[in-house]
Amino acid sequence: MSIEVNNESSIPVDETALLRLASYALDQLHVHPDAELAIVLVDEAAMEQLHVQWMDEPGPTDVLSFPMDELRPGTEDAPTPAGLLGDVVLCPQVAEAQAQTAGHSTLEELLLLTTHGILHLLGFDHAEPEEEKEMFGIQRDILVGFAMSERRRPA
């Protein structure tokens, strides 16, 4: 997997945890090992600019996804072809506020948002109730599986 994490924000983030999660998620979704993904962390002003430019909505948001080759999840027998998956853009300041409201760490919120963004890159959406149920179920399964794999990881 070619996964690049670039923290352009002023907030320190555990980039290796985001990298491990992204690798785990792409593996679980049977994405080709040569697929490329970029995760970019930006400050609120940059996220607000992207949010207005691409979604025509004011204010910063937590995560935006920019798919490239419109790849879809594969299967064990037929993985996704290699290609450019796209970019996931995160805003740590928004994630931090959401984490406080949710009662968990900022890192946990960033892991959730990264998973959410990757699923959007692979064509998942949550506009309709059935889509939301499917996407959030996969998101939960990935996060739970990742947390379990992290517990087994040597320190």
Distance between the termini: 23 Å
Largest sheet: 4 strands, mixed
Shape: globular
Uncertain segments are none
Report the strand count. Answer: 4
Q: What's the helix count?
A: 5
Q: Bin the helical content.
A: 40-55%
Percentage of residues in DSSP E strands:
15-25%
- The radius of gyration is 15 Å
If strands are numbered along the chain, what order do they take across the biggest sheet?
1-2-4-3
Average residue-wise pLDDT? 95
Order of helices and strands: EHEHEEHHH
Structural class: alpha/beta
Cofactor: Zn(2+)
Family: Belongs to the endoribonuclease YbeY family.
Pfam families: YbeY
Function: Single strand-specific metallo-endoribonuclease involved in late-stage 70S ribosome quality control and in maturation of the 3' terminus of the 16S rRNA.
Structure, described:
Its EC number is 3.1.-.-. The protein is α/β, with parallel strands linked by helices and 155 residues long. The chain is 50% helix and 15% strand. It has helices at residues 15-28, 44-55, 92-102, 106-121, 129-152; strands at 2-7, 36-41, 63-67, 84-90. The longest helix has 24 residues, at 129-152. The protein is globular, with a radius of gyration of 15 Å. The mean pLDDT is 95.
Topology at a glance:
Blueprint: E1 2-7, H1 15-28, E2 36-41, H2 44-55, E3 63-67, E4 84-90, H3 92-102, H4 106-121, H5 129-152
Parallel strand pairs: 1-2, 2-4
Antiparallel strand pairs: 3-4
Helix pairs in contact: 1-4, 3-4, 4-5
